[in-house]
Amino acid sequence: MNPVAEPTAGRDALKARIAGLVGDDLMAVERVFATELASDDQAVSDVVDYVAHFRGKRLRPTLTLLAGHATGGITRDHHVIAAVVEMIHVATLVHDDVLDGATVRRHAETVHTRWDVPTSVLLGDHLFTHAFHLASSLGRADVCRQIGRATNRVCEGELIQHAEQGRIGLVEERYLQIIGRKTAELIAISCSLGATRNGDDTHAAAFAEYGRSLGIAFQIADDLLDFAGSEDEVGKTLGSDLGQAKLTLPVILALAEAGPQHRDRLVQGLRSGDRDERATVVAILEELGAIDATRARASSYAAQARAALGPIPPGPARDVLEAMTRFAVERSH
Question: What are the beta bridge partners of residue 213?
């Protein structure tokens, strides 16, 4: 059997299972998302509609809905919460593309490339403010507080990452702190709020741990794609971490093992800020075993996510959530 075809077939089967469980609810989330962002001004509508290009996986809304399905059923509140976390996520993508100087996301021009940097900044702000306006419609102060706290931590993660940019001595613990806030926090809140209903948060802590571990696994795998992925498959600008001198886990692990010659070459590649150094850096990472070690770290966090589902009642939603932990780290895009 073609080794590439097997994972692809598995992903397609998982997508079909997700669609069978929450497909109609994902469509309801899309309607909430579109209604909240609707504008009677064409200039606003054009740029808001454009971000549909970036919304491929719908990971966070899907997790909110699956958590709801696994713990008693999906309500309209789940649709609203899922739309809120997706707006916050898309806002961070729009801003990240500016910070990273990325020109392509999901095979489409980034907003600042299609329009300009001010448009990107304003669009991100627009999405943030609409997210909190929509959250307030639930009339649940606890949800607004939790989403606000999670968003604060996402922004903290971005600020810490920017402060650490170019610091060759960045250690794995600090890297995990950054991605734990920047990526995993919003995934964790998507899961825990999906599992909370009418003040009953019996399963919220387990789902928060699941989401946090899944988020870390997902981000490690994403950072690995920056070195080991294909730009045609991934659908976004690769080498941006190298171009921005951001130390992600593959480089951190390589530097920890590197002798003077390899270390000097890696540091030169990082400090050059040149994406053309990517091939040389990747060769060193592979030689030092950093690519395989990074995959192992991602797999370990995926296993922690599966373990966190222990208290969750058996059922089709839990089965899908378990399967998602495996495909999160077996990604080509």
Answer: none
Which one-letter DSSP state was computed for residue 18?
H
- The 10 Å CB-count burial string (b at 16+, else e) for 70-101 is bbeebeebbbbbbbbbbbbbbbbbbbbbbbbe
Residue 189 half-sphere exposure toward CB, CA atoms < 13 A: 27
Which residues, given as ranges, of the chain have pLDDT below 70? 1-9, 198-200, 229-245, 272-276, 331-333
Letter for the amino acid at 59?
Answer: L
Inter-CA distances, 94 with 103, 133, 136, 318, Å? 11, 19, 23, 32
- What number of residues does the chain have? 333
Q: Torsion angle, CA of 34/36/40/41, rounded to 10 degrees?
A: -80
Are 100 and 244 in contact by the 8 Å Cβ rule? The answer is: yes
Q: Is 191 helix (H, G, I), strand (E, B) or coil?
A: helix
DSSP states of 288-312 as a string?
TTHHHHHHHHHHHHHHHHHHHTTTS
Across-strand partners of 105?
Answer: 108, 236
Q: Report which residue type is found at 215.
A: G
